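Bench notes, afternoon.
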Amino acid sequence: MIEKTFDTVRFCLILLLATLLVFQTEAQNILTTGSPDQDLFIDHYDQSADNSQNIQVLLSPGQSVTEWRMCLGTPCPFGSPTPFSEGVRHDIPNTDGTNDISITFSGNIAFVELPMGAVGVYHFRLGVQLSNTTEWEKPYTLVVRQPLRLAFVIDRSGSMECGPGRPATDGTGWDACTMDTLDKWAMAQDAMLTFGSQMNSTNESFLTGDRLGIIYFDGAIGTSIISTAGNGFRPRNVFTAANINNDFNGQYVGGILGRNGTNLGLGLQTAVYGADFFNGDLTQPHRQVIVLLTDGVQNRAPLVEPSGKRLADGTDLLNTQTAADFIQVYSMEFDNSNPGSMAVLLGNIATAPQNYFNVMLSPAGDNIYTPAFNEIFNRVFNQSTPQLINREFQSYALQEDTISQSFTVNGGGTKLYFQASFNREQAGRFDYFVSKDGQLYSDSVDVLTGQFSAMATVDVMADTTLDSRGEWTLHCVRKPVIVYSQPIPGTGTTINGSVRGLTGEPLIGANVLLQGTALGTTTDIDGNFSFNDLPAGPYTLVVSYVGFNTQEHPIGLSLGQTATAAIVLVDPSAPPLRVALSASTNEHRLKTEYSIDQDPTIDHFGGVQVGARLSPKVRLQLNGLPVTDALVTAELIRPGDDRGDLVARANVDPAPLDSSEVTNLFTAKYQAIAAQDPDYLAGLALQANTIVLEHQGNGLYEGRFDKLEVTANCAVILRVATEDPSLGSIRRYERISTAVRFGELEHDLAEQSSSVDETAGGYVHTLTYTPAYRVGNTVRLVGPGWENAFAAQNAELLDVSDGGDGSYVLQVKTPELNTKPRLTLQEEPFYEDRSLTDFGKPYSPFNWNVSLHGGVTLPFNQDHPLQLGSNLSEGIYLEADLGYQVLPRWGLELIGGYYGFKTDYYVAGGGLHLRYAVQEFGEGNLNRLLVAAGGGLYQPKSGDLQAGFGGRLTYERSLTQRLFLGGELAWYQLLDLDLSFGLAGFSLKYQF
């Protein structure tokens, strides 16, 4: 009996889960039992209020606490060091080392105080020794944060409804839809379902002040932008799957979506300044977050400016005056085939370090969006809700019956989330099961099934015997084709059924036979069939359709029974089923910080440019202490070719832009290529490169990839593997997207032209411009789709026309003919400090240059008698030049040099030369021929200072926009000495 009492004491812990207290301090006790080896997460606290909690040891009669121990992250051995004294306050820092909370011990109670403003994550371990020598020790985690106000801003434009789920033939679809074969609106609905499911299943991670809301937007002004249920933010506990389905189905699904374009600016502006949402309020005691979801096909006025922080009319969209934005934006792009301008824009909207941009990279037609949306969820709640354990993409034959994936999960998890996401509407055709260490687990599993994805949630805390540590497997088992009903009165049996393709479309006229009988039928316009008044007995349905695999399904029916057959035929030529299987854990002991920086930093415009190096970084802390022995890898996934250049050079005829919502030539040409010559896009196949991140100290791991070479959407997948004695194997997975934009623009890489017309109040310049950049010796066109990213300063940009081949026609108005405007593309300048009348002439943004020259000196009059009494022979020369570009082809060079001869004779001096670019030629004008001539003063080794003159012929090859390598021939004449000599050598020039 005594031993049993001791066990009870050892395994019982009274843990206060403090109810949220606003503007007051009050300790409350809620009894909770559990094994000391099982981590119990402590509820989140509102940082705007003082809070406190008691941690109390349950004592048997006559027992007392003889010793308390408190450690930060490490075990607390008894006997050493000295026990904590009663009544003495001890500080507990958060994982950033600031905003301490405090703990005081008295008797059998540990009193924890969380002062107002103590934002952070706090890890500590408590150890207790009782009078009967019983000891226990347990880890704790406290999260103190602001309440959350989360607004979903969702694109409901026409392109979002494209796909088989909403065909035009049923009267609700859009007959102008040419985008793709996927129903992105249904995917958005699935994403919201899983988002809401995690919010409401993760109860220990939410505050009562948390609020959520939805804004739908299209291109119309005002009327189409509404809040869910018309009341803005709602408490999270009513943001349920049922409510989400009602919102989607009641307002848009089955009806007509917005066909007016994609108005990102107005949607975001409504979220930021709308009265039902943030209302632009900097003083709200909430963490304010926007999750933007769009396919970004057509961004109509009012446009978001390229920086992503202002509208085209000059209205502030987001406040960036403080170090941290008062509204954080997480954006996701649904369509990887869209032009880079949209990806860069969405990346810029989410540029703050704590914000997040996500884009899928799968080939067109094979995108799986819901897991990417789930990654945003993990980012929004990075310190308090699920961390992604792993994700695996797999392909399966379309008739595969079982799909499964195993995941290694560490201990300490309170909730586990297993998700299956499909690239077709297949989620509802599977049942979902979870097993642990090979044993089927059925308790406390909640399954939510959408059209494209399903999520199984395991509530670890609901089962006190369950530990999250182990090998978990998600099983997706295809549902039986035949579903039987209960027997009904009657003398015959009935077989009803439907025949459909994998995407759910009815197969009209499919043949359905009863094997061994003369009975047969065909499916009607809805794909349905029926056999009535059949005698009891076994039957076999034989279903066939031209171009599809024939299927046989045995059925055994009793008298009066009805069977319903839902038959899905498989097109053998169809690509395999793509499935993303993932697992997340609600575990708070491991803190992870992920980032990718570019090195060197291109900081004058922001974003990542071609030519940069990505530097992934991961910081790990376990129980508040650095993790120094993890294996951390980074995998860079990117297309193999530059999609802007590829599309620009394609010789295809896109569909008329006004035939659908596609008003962007990039998208129109991309679709035309995919339809007419899909092999042309083979270069866009994804490539991967993996590196191991090195530990830099204090739990920071870092590495670096080679220079980026293509404009594209890229992703870096970070994987963490480490071991812990109490938690077991720990695995983490993080995917970070980045939009890599074109490199530094070079004006002369493609032909430009200009014309001018005088008009009332100024001059209108018509500029033909083909933006291009280079990678090594390769010239790349920026390509179509960037017309909204052009801007002009000190001039008025009247119009931009996209030629589709990488060229643009700009109409620019200046007040004076010689006005010198500044023209930019995505804030990258490509013309300034010159009149637009010179637009078609050679141009460099760098007016100054320095160059070094060296080579062989060749005397032309070797027999000329010198004062030294000897003849000249070949030597070497060295020169240094400083140049300045005066006009498009004209420049000045200030030259200084040393010209030596083998007869121990030299000439030193310098002069001023006038330089002219005779011709620029070759692909991208990377080669040019220069001539220069001028005079100066020269000092021979012996003799007086001499006047002289000379000329130079140089052939240059540009290595980069700033660096040139040349070969040169020159000639100099010293007048008084009648000395002439030539030079043959090389030059290296740098422009600035």
